[in-house]
Design brief:
Layout: H1 2-20, E1 27-33, E2 45-51, H2 56-67, H3 73-95, E3 109-114, E4 119-124, H4 131-138, H5 145-152, E5 176-184, E6 190-195, E7 200-205, E8 215-222, H6 232-243, E9 250-261, H7 266-269, H8 277-290, E10 298-308, H9 325-336, E11 342-350, E12 356-363, E13 380-385, E14 388-391, E15 406-411, H10 427-466, H11 482-500, H12 505-509, E16 515-516, H13 526-531, E17 539-544, H14 548-552, H15 558-562, E18 568-570, H16 573-581, E19 584-585, E20 588-592, H17 605-618, H18 620-629, E21 636-639, E22 648-651, H19 659-667, H20 673-676, E23 683-686, H21 691-701, H22 703-706, H23 709-725, H24 733-747, H25 763-775, H26 780-788, H27 797-806
Parallel strand pairs: 3-9, 13-15, 17-18, 17-20, 21-23
Antiparallel strand pairs: 1-2, 2-7, 3-4, 4-8, 5-6, 5-8, 6-7, 9-10, 11-12, 12-15, 13-14, 16-18, 19-20, 22-23
Helix pairs in contact: 1-2, 3-6, 11-16, 18-21, 23-24
Length: about 800
């Protein structure tokens, strides 16, 4: 909130400053400024000191302390600006060949650190800046040199350039207390801009003359707490992280060890920092020739040399047809830190309102803690703007259920606003996010359709083999099926998508996979299920349970199986939540077979109505008795027509929880009363054709037997077994076992379940047997003495037999 307030204040201040013309007329004075930091041997040069009429100190405080979260991003900002300057020069050189006339022909960036001077230097061979551009671009907050450049070349230029120097430049003051910018523009003199982030900055002509040829060199004088950035490895890590895919080569000056002749001068050994490739090749040839000569004494010296850091290329900027599979896999491993190959990927360029390039990868395996961190792990997308990394794992582009996706997004349409680190929500981001979701689902859809097609061909082959014909179709095993492999790893993510993403639910439903009563243990899709539905079938039926054995033996499946109707098996807790949100598929309702009053579709309504009326009258005594007995346990007792062989079942209303869902909810730590209140809405459905039900109906119909304990025990046993068979948790195991023992006693004609009297053993006889056993034991001391004297130990006949048996 504080950062947002400060940001709004900054925006308001800049707007007001522009309206008042505070930056239009800067006051300037002339003073002599020593050039010691640039060159200790050069004389002092007259420099102009500029004072802002605006509160620059306040603006710097906002920028440095509020908008940037980490100090390390200063290097990313400076490299980005250098890349922009090189881009601008390259564009100008297309129409003006003289743009490259001065300075180095190579367009590159160089970075070096000096531990003694405590400075970091970043140099580019870009377009450079004139004296006036230094004043305008570096002396005005939120002013961009490239903005002016784009305005001048608006009709023919590259409008995607985002800025030579903007607010991002000021991030250097996160690590530096003084900054010097040396710049040389073609056809102009070389100037030095210098500031300590106070209310003034100076601009002077460089007393050294033209040392750059062309381009810009930034020297950062580090603060006391920024020494970490003087380390070569630290700088290299930052370049790799943020600027790995910059178009232009980035060189870092590194200290290396070299073997040289004992008499050689170390200065002669060092590579010329400004030398060209031809000179290096000549040196290599000389070294090769020297290998044939006799070797004398050598010594190891430390020398400085330039090494390229950003070897990787931004393959997303190339056409997909020009990128090999090996390059894709190598790139995937580089950005994901995964040792396995990607399962598949999509490489595309989006055009329209928002243009961007992207490569999205689907991993072949989930991390070991993938689902444990589902709500913590964002999608592994790296967001780039013109190949400059803005943010790792950018979570606003893809929804949580697609957090397994890895890849890159590079857009020129995103504004960097005040800070790349706190990139604000922008309309372009929303457009990009929608397109990324669509592309990801398209990739999964393609794999899914290929899987279904292969499955259909395999089924066709099986039929042909059965008929004796030769099969030519593809025999695709689940292990070879890409989509099944994906489903085994990330199937729960798709189920979570069905729950969370209403807009794409219809697409996600086609990606679901289930095992069914007809799939022979293989995964099948809802499309395949619907294609196999009976003509009379109106609904998609499923049975849920704790494991596959439970659902396969579920009594609710008996009637459906008898009519050869396919049943979806649900055992994953996520499935229960999923089917609650996915109530229909292709105009077919998805219905739990355990729901009250389900209809298959082939019923004779007239006959069903007549039977219902008949059985209600016949079993009125039993239904009334059980309803009174089970008061508080169930909502009602009904005569049902679920069929099957079970005497009764516990069913739930249309919008009630299934038994499996109740089990899942009970296992949760924070289950409230509003949830558990729906548990009491169960109904008992008795089977009017079952002999136990018929016998119990007769038993309770007799006024004498109605009050008997036997009838009550049988009724409660009926309830407990129905609960267990229907998948519910037994509520009172103690009472159930007591009733079960009583019924077993009655079956075995046991007069009483009271314990029998305790046995009375003969204590004197026991004592005599113990004494006899002691006497039979051998004298170990005597045996040991015999052994020590060299005699053969002698055992009694009985003892010898005992000892032999023991051995």
């Amino acid at each position: 909130m504080k950062s947002r307030t400060l940001l709004l204040a900054l925006v308001a201040f800049i707007k007001a400053s522009g309206d008042l013309g505070l930056f239009d007329g800067v006051q300037k004075s002339t003073s002599l400024v020593a050039a010691a930091e640039v060159s200790a041997t050069e004389p002092a040069v007259a420099a102009e000191s500029f004072e802002f009429q605006a509160e620059v100190n306040r603006l710097m405080d906002i920028i440095i302390n509020s908008l940037y979260k980490t100090k390390e991003i200063f290097l990313r900002e400076v490299i980005s600006n250098a890349s922009d300057a090189l881009d601008k020069l390259r564009f100008m050189a297309v129409s003006d060949k003289t743009a490259l006339a001065e300075g180095d022909d190579e367009l590159r960036i160089r970075i070096s650190a000096d531990k003694e001077a405590r400075t970091i230097t970043i140099a580019d061979t870009g377009v450079g800046m004139t004296r006036q551009e230094l004043i305008a671009n570096l002396g005005t907050v939120a002013k961009s040199g490239t903005t002016n450049f784009v305005e001048a070349l608006g009709e023919t230029g590259d409008l995607s350039l985002i800025g030579q120097f903007g607010v991002g430049f000021y991030s250097v003051y996160l690590v530096a207390d003084k900054v010097q910018v040396v710049s040389k523009h073609a056809g102009d003199k070389q100037y030095i801009w210098e500031s300590t982030a106070d209310s003034t900055f100076t601009v002077r002509e460089d007393p050294r003359g033209d040392t750059l040829g062309r381009g810009t060199e930034i020297v950062l004088h580090l603060k006391e707490d920024a020494d970490e950035f003087l380390e070569e490895t630290r700088l290299a890590d930052l370049i790799h992280r943020y600027s790995e895919f910059i178009t232009f080569p980035i060189y870092q000056q590194r200290e290396v060890s070299k073997e040289v002749g004992a008499d050689d001068d170390e200065e002669k050994v060092s590579l010329d920092e400004e030398g060209d490739e031809e000179e290096e090749e000549e040196e290599e040839e000389e070294d090769a020739a020297a290998e044939d000569e006799p070797k004398g004494k050598t010594k190891t010296v430390k020398v400085k040399e330039w090494q390229r850091v950003n070897e990787s290329t931004a393959i997303w900027a190339r056409a997909s047809k020009d990128v090999t599979d090996a390059e894709y896999q190598s790139f995937y491993k580089a950005i994901s830190k995964d040792y396995s190959d990607a399962l598949t990927w999509t490489h595309f360029k989006a055009e329209g309102d928002v243009e961007f390039k992207s490569i999205l990868f689907i991993p072949s395996a989930a991390a070991f803690d993938h689902y444990n961190k589902y709500y913590e792990s964002p999608a592994g997308l790296k967001l780039y703007v013109r190949k400059v990394l803005i943010k790792d794992d950018f979570e606003d582009l893809l929804p949580r259920y697609l957090n397994f996706v890895r890849g890159v997004v590079d857009s020129d349409a995103l504004p960097l606003n005040v800070s790349r680190e706190t990139l604000q929500q922008h309309k372009a981001l929303q457009v990009i996010g929608k397109k990324l979701v669509r592309k990801t689902l398209d990739v999964l859809k393609k794999m899914s359709e290929e899987s279904i097609k292969a499955s259909e061909e395999k089924a066709k082959d099986a039929e042909e083999k059965k008929d004796g014909e030769e099969a030519d179709g593809q025999d695709l095993d689940d292990k070879e099926d890409k989509y099944i492999k994906f489903w085994d790893e990330f199937g729960r993510n798709i189920k979570m998508g069905v729950i969370e993403d209403i807009a794409n639910r219809s697409k996600l439903l086609k990606l679901l996979r289930f095992k069914t009563s007809k799939s022979n243990g293989k995964w099948t899709s809802l499309q395949e299920y619907v294609s196999r539905m009976k003509d009379f079938q109106k609904n998609i039926f499923y049975v849920s349970g704790e494991n596959m054995a439970a659902v396969e033996k579920s009594p609710f499946a008996e009637k459906l199986k008898a009519k050869d109707i396919e049943i979806i098996y649900i055992t994953d807790p996520t499935d229960e939540y999923c089917v609650q949100h996915a109530t229909t598929f292709e105009d077919k309702k998805i219905v739990a077979a355990s729901k009250e009053g389900i209809k298959i579709g082939d019923e004779d309504d007239k006959r069903v109505k007549a039977l219902d009326k008949h059985y209600k009258a016949e079993y009125k005594p039993l239904t009334e008795y059980l309803k009174t007995l089970y008061d508080g346990k169930i909502a009602k007792v009904i005569v049902g027509q679920h069929g099957g062989t079970a005497p009764c079942l516990i069913v739930t209303p249309q919008y009630g929880y299934t038994a499996n869902m109740e089990r899942i909810l009970k296992s949760q730590t924070f289950s409230d009363e509003t949830v558990t209140a729906r548990f009491s809405q169960r109904s008992m459905e008795i089977n009017p054709r079952h002999p136990i039900v018929a016998k119990l109906n007769t038993l309770v119909g007799d006024s004498k037997d109605k009050e008997s304990a036997e009838a009550e025990d049988l009724a409660w046993l009926l309830y407990d077994t129905a609960m267990a068979a229907s998948g519910f948790t037994m509520e009172d195991a103690g009472s159930f076992s007591s009733r079960m023992y009583r019924v077993l006693g009655q079956t075995l004609k046991v007069e009483s379940l009271d314990l029998l009297p305790e046995a009375e053993p003969d204590e004197e006889e026991e004592e005599a047997e113990e004494e006899k056993a002691v006497d039979a034991e051998p004298d170990l001391d005597e045996l040991y003495a015999q052994f020590q004297s060299g005699q053969q130990p002698v055992l009694d006949e009985e003892e010898e037999e005992t000892g032999t048996d023991e051995l």
